[in-house]
Amino acid sequence: MSRFWRRNRHWLTPVLFLLPGLILFGSVILAASVETIWISLHAWDGIGQKTWVGLANYLELADDPQFYVSLKNNVIWLLIFMLAPPVGLALALIVNQQIRGMRILKSLFFIPLVLATVTVGVVFGWVYDPNFGLLQLFFGVFGSTAPALLSDENFVTFAVAAAGLWPQIAFCMVLFLAGLNNLNDDLIAAGRVDGARGWRMLRHVVLPQLSQVGFIAIAVTVIGALRSFDMVAVMTNGGPYGSSTVLAYQMYEESIFSYRFGYGAAIATVLFVIMIAFIAWYLHGLVKAERSNA
Amino acid sequence: MYPRPIPENARLQRALYVGGVSLVVLLWLLPLLAVMLTSIRSNEELMAGNYWGWPQKFSMVENYTAVFEQTAMLRFFLNSLLITIPSVVGVLALSTLTGFVLSRYPFRGSNLIFALFVGGNFLPAQIMMIPVRDLMVRLGLYDTVYALIIFHIAFQTGFATLFMRNFIAALPGELFQAARAEGASPFQILRHVVVPLVRPALAALAILTFTFVWNDYFWAIVLTQSDAVKPVTAGLNNLRGEWTSAWNIVSAATIFVALPPVVMFFLMQKHFVAGLTMGAVKG
Amino acid sequence: MSSVELRKVDKHYVGYHALQVIDLKIEKGEFVVMVGPSGCGKSTLLRTIAGIETISSGQILINGRDVTREEPGDRGIAMVFQSYALYPHMTVAENMGFGLRMANRPKAEIDAAVRRAAQILRLEEQLTKRPKQLSGGQRQRVAIGRAITRSPEVFLFDEPLSNLDAALRTQMRVELSSLHAQLGSTMIYVTHDQVEAMTMADRIVVLNKGRIEQVGSPLELYANPANIFVAGFLGAPRMNFIEATVAAVDASGVSVMAAGLPTLTFGGVEASGLSAGDAVTVGIRPENLRVVDKTGADMPAFPGQVRLVEQLGRETILYLDASPLQATNSDSGTGNFTLQLNKVSTLRTGAVLEVGFEIGEAYLFGPDGRTLTPRKGIA
């Protein structure tokens, strides 16, 4: 036995090391994700027997007006979230100075990033409050009243997504700061010698060096927008009248509140497919970047 | 450096710049400051409509005491600790092992396994919600902290593996070859070479995982029900429903929930930022 | 019984043959240096002996024991890496004792071995320091000390001096040679630096494209390179090569012609398979070219114009344009001839002079690159 172990430990040990993580991740995360696709082909109340219904859930989904509301709202989230990379870059540029006190200011900018989304939700619920919120304070200055954003079907998704933007900007800012720290000083110096400055320096010398970080910031932001759930759940519960649901929230509602697990699974699968496309694009980009670095 | 550094001798310019940026920070954090301000205001004052003026009376102690005594927040807080700490420990242990193997023992299929860890990490939570909930129900773990611990360890292992693999892969390869040439077994290499060298990565990963798990809301409401196991995030949302008009109490509870990750962040800021960027940029 | 024996060692990756049927015997106590251009397989070969890399086929024996399937730690070898590979979180003493600790040896034995190695390498003062606190040369010695503490049967060195500056490199070269004399162990040393190879080796193994080109003592290889590759690889500045054609093969020898040069006749050449019209190469080392009088044409000579003069103090290197005669594969890459004078020269760029050489000091390489001229004596 010990002889066998000594001869083979150089490959057996790594296998043993890999197994716990692989089994846990595989059985809980990956297997569950695949199982959802299977469940989406059934009618199921979460307790009793599953009944095979084929693609019926998907067909129903195609005719479900709520589904299109969710889809539209996801697009709105995506568009609003696209502000995060440029604003994050701008903030990163502002704080990228070595002055006494700058470090603490920099950290203060990061705070929204470490807050729970529930916290952000509560905070912005307070901001949007039509009676005494921050927004009302601003409108009050001009002598008008703020719209009740969270109870207005036309504005609610914009308002919720804007709240979600807050931590996302901080995330992008962290990424761009790291990118700015890794700039090639020689290239910047060469740019200065060649007479580039300000905007032209940014455009021709700095941004090209930030392209990888920028790619990551965009990808992370896209995925964040598609994953949005917490803010909707905390701030509006999808309301008013289901006007602020997103796919993730609709799926949760159908499953947990309406006990339509098969239908919920179908929505999750659609979200999954959209996401897979982005993940594939993201991984492809990363592999390309890694190759070009190697 | 870009933008061009403001010269050190331009004292006034530097002071003005810091002042300007401070103003931006103030605006940036205004929503949070408003909540902080409310958390030390008395209910009477709120009723009277003094939301933004300077508090006439500081009720900080009263409000926070109320949060501890009249709500279940302390219980939720404890639950969060009971969930988060084992999750972090578990993630660190598992990902050190997987990261070590995937970076130093290439085998047929190792790239595929790595891609699964990375890809799975980006999946939306909803895609696995129903089966995971079902699994926990069947295991009898639904509505216990174990359900959340197991799920968080499993899920965070994806990101953490990516993180640890990249960190270990960036260590000089000859260190590992030298250890092998000196007769160290894989276990000895793990213990005497990998673990001492990955300490900074573990610190970064610990703070990141702590933040992710502590801040989780979705799984908290999917896998738990009762106040006895609920973490702070789910608890806070409930609280908001129950104490609708007592904004000062809700605000105090909000600050209470936000405190641990913010404190952790300021204590381990360097690790947090390094971790976040390393995880995203290199991965 | 050889200390290290390689039997038909072969290694290929997909689409790349890294080592091609290597056979080699290394005797106990020998200092063998493997040299070759980058990518020739010398490091790969060393790593297969260490067991860090596997082989596709063949056998590796150490002290007569087949270790082909054994783990590196069980082979009785110790390796010194190019980057030193010192563990940054351990002290010098811990680094040096690591291997013995892994083998669960008693603490007293580890301490004794570390102390002995530290004494040999004059590291006693540094034992409690971390690698980061040491100079490059000290780190290098710790890496060697780590190898010594394990008292291996074979020491393997993978370009250990390439990260040191020139002065330190010379010093460490001497120290390594005396260490070898002191320990008497078998040492295999990989380098791309021919000076290290020439000065340290008992025997040199010249590798090229995964194959052994020649094995022999340094002077033997220098005087009698087996082929045009070895001839060009050893020696700095490089040997001058001239493309030529066989004019005639007869009893007196082989006559070859090259534009711009009188017909050269090489005697004693093993001329089987050679016939008139074959493309051959004539090689002359730069130190064998000399400036001659135009009148004293008792040796083959050709006119040349000085393009560049490098004064090295003790010697002078001249780069000559001798068209229509062209040097191929020359150091400067220009077709210029390289001439080394062992004295200070007053010649200036543009000077025109007559260059000659003894036919007995020139080499003739066949169409396949093999050396055809007879063995030369080693001075």
Characterization of the model:
Chain B: Pfam families: BPD_transp_1. Chain B: It comes from Mesorhizobium tamadayense. Chain B: Part of the ABC transporter complex UgpBAEC involved in sn-glycerol-3-phosphate (G3P) import. Probably responsible for the translocation of the substrate across the membrane. By secondary structure, chain A is mostly helical. Chain A has 14 helices and two strands. In chain A, helix 11 packs antiparallel against helix 14. Chain A is flat. Chain B contains 15 helices and no strands. Helix content of chain B is 76%, strand content 0%. Chain C has 379 residues and is of the alpha+beta class. Chain C folds into two domains: 229 residues, P-loop containing nucleotide triphosphate hydrolases (Rossmann fold, 3-Layer(aba) Sandwich), CATH 3.40.50; 130 residues, OB fold (Dihydrolipoamide Acetyltransferase, E2P), CATH 2.40.50. Chain C is 22% helix and 33% strand. In chain C, 40% of the residues are buried. The mean pLDDT of chain C is 90. At the A-B interface, helix 1, helix 4, helix 5, helix 6 and helix 8 of A face helix 1, helix 2, helix 5, helix 6 and helix 7 of B.
Q: Outline of this structure?
A:
The complex is a heterotrimer of chains A (294), B (283) and C (379). Chain A contains 14 helices and two strands.
Observed structural traits:
heterotrimer, A: 294 residues, mainly alpha, 2 domains, 14 helices, 2 strands, B: 283 residues, MetI-like fold, 15 helices, 76% helix, cell inner membrane (chain C), ABC transporter ATP-binding protein (chain C), ABC_transpr_MalK/UgpC-like (chain C)
CATH superfamily of the largest domain in chain B: MetI-like
Main sheet makeup of chain B = none
Based on the coordinates given, report the CATH architecture of the largest domain in chain A: Orthogonal Bundle
- Helix-and-strand structural type of chain A: mainly alpha
For the record, give the distance between the C-alpha atoms at the N and C termini of chain B, rounded to a whole number: 25 Å
- List the quaternary state of the chains: heterotrimer
Strand content of chain B: under 5%
Pfam families (chain B): BPD_transp_1
Subunit structure (chain B): The complex is composed of two ATP-binding proteins (UgpC), two transmembrane proteins (UgpA and UgpE) and a solute-binding protein (UgpB).
Domain ABC transmembrane type-1 (chain B): 77-268
Transmembrane segments (chain B): 15-37, 76-100, 112-132, 144-168, 189-214, 246-268
